[in-house]
Amino acid sequence: MAASPATSVPIFKLYGETQHWPTPDLLHCESIPERSQLHNWRIRPHRHADLVHILFISQGSVELALEGANHQLQHSSAIIVPAMAIHGFHFSPDVQGHIITLAKPLADHLHELMGESSALKKAGFFRFNLPHQSERIATLVTQIDQEYRQPAPGRNQLLEALVQALVVELSRLTTYPDRVAKRHGPRQSDKGRQHLENFQALIEEHYREQPSIEQLAERIGVSSAHLNMLCRQLAERSALQLLHERLLLEAKRQLTYTNMTISQVSDNLGFSEPAYFTRFFKRNTTLSPRDFRLRQHAQS
């Protein structure tokens, strides 16, 4: 199950899907069988431009294709797949476990908290040598899954705390590999990927200002045409689409989780007038901001 060349590897928005990120949450959690059985237990090699996966295998096995190398993993193992890492899975039909997907804003926040020790920065996997090691990870994953599926007051804060604890535990495995577990699979990188990562970091820092692509390209040290080429090649979206996707995600979050008026959300996200924000939102979701908010509240 070797990976295709980087330029031809498909970009999936969420674990085999190509539609937009389906929720205003910055985290998505599901059991591995939920989706993999729909694909005959095989997810072909692909990559994500702005998502990070954490997989925990509690039962069964998986053939992992990660950055051009194949690995056979049994139960009691964890897999880290950062943005842009090429990965594919072939699970055994008896597999049990979970996949936790982090949107880039949350992954970046965790990077800042953990610094260079963050386990999310490099592709790799862990085989747990002792039962208590996998039990600690399994407990956190189960708590995340339960909280994700059964919303309650303080849900966002608790989910973020649990994910932070999970990343701390995984980062300890990176920091003390000989004492705890063994990590494999260094991530490959190149100048194009670095430019894309720098661009995404600038988007995260400045999206509310709605800067021009030319301004951002100049900050990176490339032309806007070259930046667009890299974005289309590595993320299959234009540079402007990536900026707009971040704006749209924040708009969804503010409409769902705050009491800000439509006008206030519009102003907070750098739109010159609410009418322009409404057109932007409806063009990308088919719903007006008001209708989207009503639907979200009806589902809660």
Automatic annotation (TrEMBL):
PROSITE patterns: HTH_ARAC_FAMILY_2. CDD domains: cupin_HpaA-like_N (cd06999). InterPro entries: AraC-bd, Cupin_HpaA-like_N, Homeodomain-like_sf, HTH-like, HTH_AraC, RmlC-like_jellyroll. Keywords: DNA-binding, Transcription, Transcription regulation. It comes from the Bacteria. Pfam families: AraC_binding (PF02311), HTH_18 (PF12833). Gene3D superfamilies: Homeodomain-like, Jelly Rolls. Residues 197-295 form the HTH araC/xylS-type domain. GO terms for molecular function: DNA-binding transcription factor activity; sequence-specific DNA binding. This is AraC family transcriptional regulator. It comes from Vreelandella nigrificans.
